[in-house]
Design a protein that fits this description.
Order of helices and strands: HHHHHHH
Largest sheet: none
Helix content: 55-70%
Number of helices: 7
Number of strands: 0
Distance between the termini: 25 Å
Structural class: mainly alpha
Radius of gyration: 12 Å
């Protein structure tokens, strides 16, 4: 089960698309998440880039907790293609990204 609301993930997608302009806001937003949300956000990105299969989501979350040696905001903002990875991860986990984006706007 995903322990971060899809709307928060979509907010990260939007902020990360703003590039350098949104970098400070992206860091602040991710920093404000609790540890569970940060681990789940990371796991969604990993599923989206193919590091884990959707059926291995729980393992991805456990790995995110175990390997959290870098602040999540720094780690994720340095990930190439973060918005695409998050979108793909949500879709792989059965969440309608377009619907979530419409709801957020």
């Amino acid at each position: 089960m995903i322990e971060i609301s899809p709307s928060k993930v979509v907010q990260v997608i939007f902020l990360s698309r703003e590039g350098p302009v949104g970098a400070a806001e992206l860091h602040a937003f991710i920093d404000a998440l609790n540890d569970d949300e940060k681990a789940h956000l990371t796991a969604i990105a990993w599923v989206g880039r193919g590091a884990f299969e959707p059926e291995d989501y729980a393992e991805a979350v456990a790995t995110a907790f175990a390997e959290a040696t870098t602040p999540t905001a720094s780690y994720l903002s340095g990930m190439p293609h973060l918005p695409e990875n998050l979108e793909s991860g949500l879709e792989a986990l059965g969440i309608d990204v377009a619907g979530e984006e419409e709801d957020l706007l």
